[in-house]
Amino acid sequence: MSEPEKRTVTVKPIGAVIRAPEGALLRDILFEYGVEFPCGGQGRCRGCRVQVQEGRAALNAAQTERLSAAEIESGWRLACQCRVEDDLVIEIRQWDAAILADETAVPFTPQEGLGVAVDLGTTTLVAQLLDLQTGYTLAVRTALNAQARYGADVMSRIQFAVTDSSQHVLEQTIRVQIGSLIHQLLEAARQDPGRLRRVTLVGNTVMHHLFSGIDVTPLSAVPFETEHGGLQTLSPQQLGWPLSNDTIVHFLPTMGSFVGSDLLAGVIATRMFESENISVLVDLGTNGEIVLGGRDRILCASTAAGPAFEGARISMGMRASTGAIWKVMAADGEFACEVLGNAEPRGICGSGLVDAVAAGLELGRIGLTGRLSGGAPSLDIAPPVNITQTDVRQLQLAKGAIAAALRILLRKWRATPDDVSVIHLAGAFGNYVDRASARRIGLFDFPPDKVQAVGNTALRGARLALFTPEEEERSGDAILRVVEHVALHADPDFQDIYVEEMGFPSCG
After folding, report:
1. Do 368 and 506 contact (CB within 8 A), yes or no?
2. Mean per-residue pLDDT for 154-165?
3. What pLDDT shows up at residue 473?
4. Fewer CB atoms near the end CB (10 Å): N or C, the chain?
């Protein structure tokens, strides 16, 4: 049987030229170049749009339903629904984003050998190779989570795992990918794999389960609880990694339900568990995770904020990468914008959306209910980029969920915003968002000087855990003993508070 004919796919703007067999799925080719598939390649969203500039890509029912006639005429297609049938020149709608690593110096106790810290995120991965004797970072590797081809968020991956009985596919995908990253780290630093002593991973509860081989079915329905969120110890042999079985692989324990070990690592990194004052740690993504407390008591909760903070499900949304409007201000009665990479504006990321809505409120273009003035369907920010009425509603849903969760945790603590000493804002969104804008839209009811961007605390906490002596490996238990998980869905007032928090405050 003859081999399929090879075709050439040229990808703009990155300039990649790919040779692919005729009939290959465009989805499988483009995933490696940063194109994400929010609905898992099911053709239910528009997140993987590409513009075909040369060549032919066939339409199907999913595309004619999701794309307008004008878009189809202009060559737009859904990459997840196309095969390579011709030589193609395409421009991707998405761009690779800078993945937030962490180089902050941490205290350590010198040890022999090497260690790898891994922040296993739903969307991105970061892995660092460290010399345990000196504490130096020898190499860093980042990547998009290869599981994303089966769904962009944790719930879509749970659905894939449970409905299609395909959890083993997700497990194998992430184990192979992280094993490959470790191999790349060792090669880049020219280190002997035999020197690798420890690998420490952190991530949300779903990533914890999928990597460790724990059934995610309990996380698919109310009450969304799991009995297997503890410290996981695995051998390289179990994971299919060609490393010595003397290498210890640990996935740190979760804090409860959808509050994962990435937040536990953040608690360790910020040292909030040592503070006599109340502090807050917030990690904003599709699933917003919040920790509130101090030395003797810690409350944690998670809430389905939706993907607006990451620029997803926004009409011209994109992640914080080249071409994204990341900052918007009201100046002389108009919008003034800054674009990442000093490029022409292509879309708007989460921080830009927060700014745009805050500026729209100041300019009177958006009302306190979220309605665009004059009933306009959209609001021009920087041509060709605009935000629609639906975009504003998506942000209201996201910020309402976070604000409501904070109110409930404060009420349970019997505290007020004035009692909180600091808000630690973790992750990529926290790195970019303007604190005054966040307060203006009602995301945080705290003075901007109390809100601090703290970067990738998940990775920093994983690095700290690498240096924990083996006999103290369960030292995280001391924190977990004072942790109380608050199930927001079980609070009778959550829905009412959520609705209240969807509106915008009358002043900043």
Report:
1. yes
2. 86
3. 47
4. N
Closest CA to 463 of 98, 103, 99: 103
245: confidence class by pLDDT, cuts 50, 70, 90: confident
CA-to-CA distance for 143 and 467, rounded, in angstroms?
A: 25
In this structure, the number of other CB atoms found within 10 A of the CB of residue 326 comes to 22
Amino acid 18: pLDDT: 86
**What is the C-alpha end-to-end distance of the chain, expressed in Å?**
69
Residue 471 has pLDDT above 50, yes or no: no
Q: How far is CA 182 from CA 131, 189, 196, 469, in A?
A: 14, 11, 10, 22
Token digits for 390?
Answer: 């639906």
Buried b (16+ CB within 10 A) or exposed e, 256-290: bbbbbbbbbbbbbbbebbeeeebbbbbbbbbbbbb
Which of these, 266, 137, 117, 122, lies nearest to 201 by C-alpha position?
117
Phi, psi of 331 (to 5 degrees): -140, 120
Per-chain mean pLDDT for the chain:
87
Q: What does each C-alpha distance from 316 to 27, 149, 363 come to in angstroms? A: 21, 21, 21
Q: For position 315, what pLDDT does the model report? A: 86
Which residues partner with 385 through β-bridges? 382
Sort 123 into a burial class: Cβ within 10 Å, 0-12 / 13-18 / 19+.
Answer: buried
State mean pLDDT over 327-335: 93
**Structure tokens that stand for 122 in this block:** 């739903």
- Reply yes or no on whether the pLDDT at 96 is more than 60: no
How far is residue 245's CA from residue 266's CA, in Å, rounded to a whole number?
29
- 103 pLDDT tier (thresholds 50, 70, 90): low
In order of their start, the domains of the chain are 6-92 (3.10.20.30)
The one-letter amino acid code at 123 reads T
Name the residue with tokens 């504003």.
Answer: 392
E strands, 400-456, where?
420-426, 451-455
Q: Are 211 and 201 in contact (CB under 8 A)?
A: yes
Q: Is cis: bond before 223, omega within 30 of 0?
A: yes
Spatial CA neighbour of 324 closest among 72, 94, 92, 80: 94
Which tens digit of pLDDT belongs to each residue from 382-431?
989 999 999 999 999 999 999 999 999 999 999 999 999 999 998 777 77
Nearest Cα to Cα of residue 157 among 115, 210, 90, 232: 210
For the record, the structure tokens of 295 come out as 């030395």
H helix runs in 236-316, sequence order: 236-239, 261-270
d(CA 224, CA 405): 17
